């Protein structure tokens, strides 16, 4: 992977791209499709939930195509394959929960990725960790800004799973086969800094990325959902990958969602 490709995944680059496209597009384009609010939701709640739906649809699409298309997937350990399959189910469960609250599907269902995504293992894992970093910070915005404790606790519960996914993606990296460019010992996330995968759980505290508003999360994800922003970020816009929802089956029902009260 080239340095140019690496730079497209940095937080600063994503934010600059969103700025170049226009802050109005970030919120006006993504959140103008926010549904009529369910009973008890504020406008701010709905904006966060719609952004989360888009993010979860993107996550499901990412994991689906890693499993179905990435050559390295077939050559990693069986338990690592199992992590990726389980993560796909979990992200779909998050999406289904959020849709049940908003009453409407994600307004965006096609996504763009950096060049060599799903073909090159390093690009794929860097992008996956970048997305999980963004999801963690976005759900922390929900913890900060949701209008009631049930939604705040639910956001924290989902954020914890996104943190699991970030760590486990870093577990996969050193297990990538030599023929696929492995072992990968350093992975870049949204901050664009190579971080050793030893240990994979290298956070003492989740990173907020200093995001305090949901539009900051939307701006960071904009190149993945908007073709113009994708072009500016150097992503491959020759193909868009479509979100295909399904009925999720969680690995363990003890970890299923049993209600907003916990």
Quick recap of the structure?
With 262 residues, the protein is mainly alpha-helical. It has helices at 3-7, 11-21, 23-31, 43-69, 78-102, 121-145, 149-172, 214-225, 227-232, and strands at 110-114, 186-188, 194-196, 235-242. Helix 2 (11-21) packs across helix 8 and helix 6 (121-145) packs antiparallel against helix 7 (149-172).
Describe the structure.
By secondary structure, the protein is mainly alpha-helical. The protein has a single domain, classed as Ferritin, core subunit, four-helix bundle (Ferritin, Up-down Bundle). Helices cover 55% and strands 7% of the residues. It contains 9 helices and 4 strands, in the order H-H-H-H-H-E-H-H-E-E-H-H-E. The strands form 2 sheets. Strands 1-4 form a two-stranded antiparallel ribbon. It has a two-stranded antiparallel sheet with strand order 2-3. Strand 2 and strand 3 form a beta hairpin. Helix 4 runs parallel beside helix 8 and helix 5 packs antiparallel against helix 7.
């Amino acid at each position: 992977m080239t340095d140019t490709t690496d730079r497209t995944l940095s937080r600063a680059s994503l934010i600059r791209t969103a700025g170049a496209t226009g802050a109005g597009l970030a919120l006006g384009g993504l959140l103008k499709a926010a549904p009529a609010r369910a009973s008890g939701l504020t406008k701010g709640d709905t904006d966060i939930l719609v952004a989360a739906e888009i993010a979860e649809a993107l996550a499901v699409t990412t994991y689906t195509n890693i499993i179905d298309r990435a050559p390295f997937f077939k050559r990693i350990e069986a338990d690592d394959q199992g992590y990726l399959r389980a993560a796909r189910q979990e992200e779909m469960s998050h999406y289904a929960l959020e849709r049940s609250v908003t009453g409407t599907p994600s307004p965006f269902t096609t996504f763009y990725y950096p060049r060599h995504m799903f073909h090159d293992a390093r690009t794929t894992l860097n992008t996956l960790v970048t997305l999980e970093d963004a999801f963690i910070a976005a759900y922390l915005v929900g913890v900060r800004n949701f209008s009631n404790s049930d939604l705040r606790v639910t956001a924290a519960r989902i954020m914890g799973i996104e943190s699991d996914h970030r760590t486990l993606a870093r577990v996969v990296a050193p297990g990538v086969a030599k023929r696929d460019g492995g072992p990968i010992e350093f992975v870049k996330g949204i901050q664009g800094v190579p971080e050793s995968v030893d240990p994979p759980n290298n956070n003492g505290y989740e990173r907020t990325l200093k995001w305090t508003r949901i539009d900051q999360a939307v701006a960071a994800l904009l190149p993945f959902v908007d073709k113009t922003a994708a072009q500016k970020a150097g992503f491959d816009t020759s193909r868009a990958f479509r979100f295909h929802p399904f009925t999720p089956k969680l690995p363990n029902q003890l970890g299923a969602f049993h209600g907003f009260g916990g």
